[in-house]
Amino acid sequence: MRILVIEDDPDLSRQMKAALTGAGYAVDHAGDGEEGHYLGDTEPYDAVVLDLGLPVMDGASVLRNWRQAGKTMPVLILTARDGWSEKVSGFDAGADDYVTKPFRMEELLARLRALIRRAAGHATPVMECGPVKLDTATSRVEVGGQTVKLTAQEFKVLAYLMHHRDKVVSRTQLTEHIYDQDFDRDSNTIEVFIGRLRKKLGVDVIETVRGLGYRLSEPAAGGPSAG
Ligand code: CA
Questions:
Q1: How do residues 62-99 score in pLDDT, each as one tens digit?
Q2: Which of 18, 45, 133, 206 is disulfide-compatible with 4, CB 3.0–4.6 A?
Q3: Distance of CA 89 from the midpoint of ligand 1 (Å)
Q4: What three-state secondary structure class fits 139?
């Protein structure tokens, strides 16, 4: 899952980037509204954290422009204390949720998790696929009740596939959602992560869809078919 943070306060930006990276997200940052608007317009994000008071272009205008252009990614706005009118204009511009400054990182993370899973059509924090369970709150992965240890990148791949269960996800799409903008991307490494995930999970939940990508779905009863 990849997140865009648009915030002009350098300290708060650094804290959010560290917290989000630590929680297993790929994170891009913009320090003004214009750059932020451009990134959100051109890169695929699973969620955006948007400060309303920004240099060059204010947050509400950024959001309004995206929504008018048909961008539907979940957006959480950061508002000032007692800024009820700010909240109202933020929601009217197309915001999905907000936190009031100052806030606890835990609250920001929890709200983002909820927004991301809601956007993917999941109501509960624990996602399941056959014997595989992924707890988005704790980042824990279990197969048949046994914890499976994954690297950060393996987790990102699995989390994206779990959020898009039963859908075909291309290698490009995976690459775009597990790496930040500055990362030297190589879609061939996705194959390596998928191989390792299959081995670690030990169950047949990730199917290769020839020429298209991968699909995570419940293994057929009785194990993999012989065809
Ligand atoms: Ca600001």
A1: 999 999 999 999 999 999 877 889 999 999 999 999 99
A2: 45
A3: 16
A4: coil
